[in-house]
């Protein structure tokens, strides 16, 4: 009752304020001549009528000036003229491609192409509106069922963008009375979600779980829910966190654990289940030497997967589609289904995207040799590069292999030199990474041939010598 009267008082105050400001505007219009009506009682600087002096535009134009002064072609947004795979064509020139997340080669898979074509013929190119507005489709539910089963979780929810999945999920589930502790190298979509949530937040040094524990020891008691969020396979460095230790910490401090599997799905674990399969395999091996109580890989997978509260992934990398997903318990999924803005106020996933992602899951199960081939390609690449005295950073040799160059300018130069030798690899420069960590980032796929890998590492050695990285 008290709330109601407070609410109606507030409402009448807002109505009053609105109508009096409208009255003022009307009075002003009535008492002014025509020329005065077009004059504002304040001035607006010309600077704020355009983006000519916008700080971000100034940054971009400085970068472009710098590149042209050094005679370097802009390495970004090159127009690629064919399907992205192990080869790419730019202005008629064919190059070996290391800039695609097509980890298991599904983007060009005839089965996937056919599925997408049939999907368009049957259901059209779009579902037209948000699922809350337009209703559900069977293919959306089927994909979610598949994802939930894959992570051994009761439910899953699919969004139309991987980036929006993180932003919407984190900002919906956590608020100002909560704390979020995240790995300092987490992806932008995680950081954006954290900022939007209004929660207090702390980064912990990359993969340093002792620091994570220290932060929790000091801060856990001051907050309601505490989220620990990290990635399964880091997209800039190619290393993995210690999942069993993360689970132990989460349980000790009563936290929620979220893992972004964007780069680990289809890459880690013999069957591509990602981080939990990876650790189940490692710890099954260790327990053979008597370190752990006897559990087989499946039991450990079950244990690790169910201990992670929120599994996040994207459809755009291994699955060669577009969109993102969350697999979690039914309460979390219900909250997201009704309140996550990126789901509620955004169109539902289309048939070609949903059905091709579902097909890619099926192919991953049917063709596990792709995962094996990816692993052996990546390990060969890393071994050859390291043997030439070139620094591959923290990469564990799964699919992402950085070559640390050490300055943004040199990284751009190295990328251009390799381009001239018929190899396409993107430079990663400041501010995406620290200046002295500027690098070339190689994405290895199951489709690269041994010849392509050898040719590339030889070219890389020549370029590294030319830019003074090695002798
Ligand atoms: C770790 C991580 N999470 C989320 C995303 C966003 O996924 P998407 O590109 O499918 O929107 C990316 C994209 O590269 C990523 O690397």
Description of the molecule:
- The structure is a single chain.
- The chain is an alpha/beta fold and 471 residues long.
- The chain folds into 3 domains: 1-20 and 51-60; 87-101 and 368-466, Aspartate Aminotransferase, domain 1 (Alpha-Beta Complex); 110-366, 3-Layer(aba) Sandwich (Aspartate Aminotransferase, domain 2), CATH 3.40.640.
- Helices cover 48% and strands 13% of the residues.
- The chain has 18 helices and 13 strands.
- The chain has a 7-stranded mixed β-sheet, with helices on both faces.
- The relative contact order is 0.13.
- It binds pyridoxal-5'-phosphate.
- Pyridoxal-5'-phosphate binds next to helix 7.
| Ends distance | 80 Å
Order of strands across the main sheet: 3-9-8-7-6-4-5
Q: What bound compounds does this protein have?
A: pyridoxal-5'-phosphate
The CATH class assignment of the largest domain is Alpha Beta
Number of domains: 3
Number of DSSP E strands: 13
- Strand proportion, as a percent range, falls in 5-15%
**Overall mean confidence score, pLDDT:** 91
Q: What is the CATH architecture term of the largest domain?
A: 3-Layer(aba) Sandwich
Instruction: Tell me about the largest β-sheet.
Output: 7 strands, mixed
Keywords:
Aspartate Aminotransferase, domain 1; 7-stranded mixed β-sheet; binds pyridoxal-5'-phosphate; alpha/beta
């Amino acid at each position: 009752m008290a709330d109601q009267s407070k609410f109606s008082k507030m409402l009448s105050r807002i109505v009053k304020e609105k109508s009096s400001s409208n009255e003022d505007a009307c009075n002003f219009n009535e008492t002014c001549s025509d020329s005065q009506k077009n004059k504002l009682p304040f001035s607006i600087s010309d600077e704020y009528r355009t983006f000519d002096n916008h700080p971000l535009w100034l940054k971009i134009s400085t970068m472009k000036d710098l590149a042209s002064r050094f005679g370097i072609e802009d390495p970004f947004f090159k127009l690629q003229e064919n399907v992205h795979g192990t080869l790419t064509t730019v202005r008629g020139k064919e190059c070996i491609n290391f800039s695609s997340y097509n980890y298991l080669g599904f983007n060009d898979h005839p089965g996937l192409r056919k599925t997408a074509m049939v999907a368009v013929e049957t259901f059209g190119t779009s579902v037209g509106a948000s699922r809350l507005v337009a209703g559900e489709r069977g293919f959306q539910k089927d994909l979610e069922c598949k994802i939930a089963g894959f992570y051994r979780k009761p439910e899953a929810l699919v969004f139309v963008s991987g980036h929006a999945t993180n932003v919407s999920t984190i900002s919906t589930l956590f608020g100002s009375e909560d704390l979020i502790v995240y790995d300092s190298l987490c992806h932008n979509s995680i950081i954006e979600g954290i900022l939007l949530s209004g929660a207090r937040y702390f980064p912990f040094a990359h993969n340093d779980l002792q620091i994570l524990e220290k932060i929790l020891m000091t801060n856990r008691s001051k907050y309601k829910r505490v989220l620990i969020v990290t990635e399964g396979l880091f997209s800039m460095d190619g290393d993995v966190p210690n999942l069993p230790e993360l689970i132990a910490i989460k349980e000790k401090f009563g936290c929620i654990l979220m893992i972004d599997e964007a780069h680990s799905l289809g890459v880690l674990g013999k069957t591509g289940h990602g981080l939990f399969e990876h650790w189940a395999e490692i710890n099954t091996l260790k327990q053979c030497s008597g370190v752990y109580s006897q559990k087989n890989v499946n039991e450990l997978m079950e244990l690790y997967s169910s201990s992670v509260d929120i599994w996040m992934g994207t459809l755009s990398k291994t699955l060669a589609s577009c969109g993102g997903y969350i697999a979690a318990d039914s309460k979390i999924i219900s909250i997201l289904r009704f309140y996550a803005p990126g789901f509620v106020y955004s169109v539902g996933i289309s048939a070609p995207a949903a059905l091709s992602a579902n097909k890619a899951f099926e192919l991953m199960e049917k063709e596990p040799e792709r995962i094996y081939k990816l692993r052996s390609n990546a390990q060969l690449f890393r071994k050859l590069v390291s043997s030439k005295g070139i620094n591959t950073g923290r990469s564990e040799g799964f699919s992402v292999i950085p070559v640390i160059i050490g300055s943004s300018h040199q990284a751009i130069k190295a990328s251009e030199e390799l381009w001239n030798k018929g190899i396409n690899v993107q430079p990663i420069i400041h501010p995406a990474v620290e200046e002295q960590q500027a690098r070339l980032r190689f994405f290895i796929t199951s489709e690269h041939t041994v010849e392509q890998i050898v040719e590339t590492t030889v070219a890389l050695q020549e370029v590294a010598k030319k830019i003074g990285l090695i002798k």
